[in-house]
Specification:
The chain contains ten helices and seven strands. The chain has 248 residues and is α/β, with parallel strands linked by helices. The strands form two sheets. A five-stranded mixed beta sheet has the order 5-4-3-6-7, sandwiched between helices. Strands 1-2 form a two-stranded antiparallel ribbon. A hairpin with a 2-residue loop joins strand 1 and strand 2. Helix 5 packs parallel to helix 9.
Length: 248
């Protein structure tokens, strides 16, 4: 049954590739560098029909059939590079943080995505962990502080692991971080979880922890761009244009 369905879907996908070739090429015209020689990934099994309509942006190779079929090229490879480029252009965040964790299903088991926003709703950072304990919370705070600087106040819910992690961090600092525990004042971060859940819910879970971590960081990056957390350099750009500029 699956083989018969694939034989029916593949020709239709090829027709869509041909019909949308002109529109796709025009969409990426501004960020194309014709002088670069196209390099097809070694693990790509695309046929000659897919190799011909190709657009090269810096080191990344986009095949039209990848957009439709989504399985020929490992999409997790460029995401860490784009995230690193975004961090260099990320706007500074506030000193009052709201920290919370939400659930993400990986291989049928619930994992924990640590997230935080400041009082203006700007995303601080995210980190996917297998366990919800003191070590996981401390690792998240260390990562967030290294990328965004030390906060003055951290708002958390009644989670004992988050409190224990912050107490461990304060024991190593001359100026301790003020910790506040209030379930209802943490609604800002809980509402912000919706933007991530809206993307992950149709995926019906992840099959690999590493891929889940990379894809979630990419979703968070795009979410921060939509919230205006990327430096504009005096130029007004849409969220899509800002994302494209990361590979320039």
């Amino acid at each position: 049954m699956r083989k018969a369905r694939a034989e029916l879907v593949a020709p239709a996908a090829d027709r869509l590739v041909a019909d949308n070739h002109a529109a796709f090429e025009q969409q990426f015209l501004d960020i194309t560098q014709p002088e670069l020689k196209p390099e097809v990934p070694a693990n790509c099994v695309a046929d000659d029909r897919c190799r011909e309509p190709m657009t090269v942006v810096k080191r990344f190779c986009f095949l039209h059939c990848v957009i439709l079929r989504g399985s020929l090229v490992n999409v997790t490879e460029p995401l860490p590079v784009l995230e690193k480029a975004f961090r260099h252009r990320k706007r500074p965040v506030g000193k009052s943080w709201r920290v919370d964790e939400t659930y993400i299903k990986v291989r049928g088991q619930w994992k924990y995505l640590y997230r935080a926003v400041d009082k203006a709703g700007h995303t601080i950072d995210c980190l996917l962990r297998a366990h919800r304990d003191k070590a996981a919370a401390k690792r998240y705070f260390e990562k967030s502080i290294s990328h965004n600087g030390e906060p003055e106040t951290v708002m958390i819910d009644k989670s004992g692991s988050n409190l224990a992690a912050l107490e461990a961090l304060n024991a190593e600092r001359d100026t301790p971080i003020k910790v506040r525990q209030n379930k209802y004042l943490n609604n800002l971060i809980e509402q912000d979880h919706r933007a991530i859940k809206r993307r992950t819910r149709p995926m019906l879970g992840f099959k690999n922890f590493r891929c889940a971590r990379i894809i979630l960081s990419g979703i968070e990056t795009m979410h921060m761009i939509r919230k205006g957390q990327m430096k504009a350099d005096g130029v007004s750009r849409t969220a899509a244009e800002q994302f494209y500029s990361l590979v320039m």
